[in-house]
Amino acid sequence: MRTEIDLDAAAREGIIGEDQAIALRNFQAEQDGLPLASAEKFRIFGGYADLVIGIGTALVLGSITVFADGVGFWLVFPIMAVVCYMLGRFVDMRARPATATVIMCAYLAFSFCALPVALHENHVVLDREVLPFVLYAVLPAAVATWLYWRAYRFPPTFAAAIIPIAFISIDLTATLIVAIGTLISASWWDMTDIRRETERSQVAFWLHCCAGFLISRSLFSLLTGRKVIDDNLVLTGLSVDQFPYVLAMIGGAALFSLLLDRRSLLVGVLLPTVGMFETIDSGFVGVGTGMLLAGVSLLFFSWGWVRLRIALLGILPRKWAAQLPRTGLGLEGQRPTRRHLPLLHLRSSSKRVV
Fold it and tell me: Reduced to 3 states, what is the DSSP secondary structure of residue 213?
């Protein structure tokens, strides 16, 4: 079965009718027991051939980076950024997502590092204060990311660009602002595709994953008083008396995730909790505590996700609920979208509409 984006594209090109697209979505939902949109399906690789090509591309690009040491990074990096940008024109990003991801990451890496490396090799001291950091790191990265998105519309582009910017910033406030901005951006992408039929919903998926992780890590940094940049990917050192703050964070993330029907946001928040209590008793007990908390939370919300979301949306005024993503279309009323075919209520027809 094709994805929502494929069905939408086929209907838009006139290959199939909108009624046939909806019938296919209904059929897939009956097979899976869950609407396609709510399942948050995504593709990491398009098959073994795509995986092999992706690995080969990564090895070739990596070797070029190694050999660049003898030529000069300041010269090789800009050239390779342009090469990777052009390579995107020869790759079907829908059919070969693994290869496309390798090329995208290489393009972003070369683009982001070109200016800082050139300044460093010319003995210019790089200042990490806010304004210089924005000028030599954030602004070039934003331009490079926008150019790539405009050219190829590859969904993980924005998330892949945000993560390194957040991690090279040593200021907790700046990182938290980036995390909150990422969450707002992800929500906006979601709200512009409430039925999750276009690539916009895929952009939101990756941004939610990124936002959840960054928000969780920033809040842990705030509680521990440690800098965001650290030798460990996951910060540790929380004490037992800080446990309520962690529960409040998980509860807030779960509430927001249920409203938007985005498990990816909740998972992004929960994963950094695995090692946060490492200092409790012995390291094994602390890690086990974090693993248990994350695992139980994921299982609980996954088991009751649909029922919890229906109950939560039932509390909201209908006008508010109608503005949220309609992944199950189990609500009365319908927010207007560009789709013209009327959708029926779940219980008003023997055929399930998703």
Answer: helix
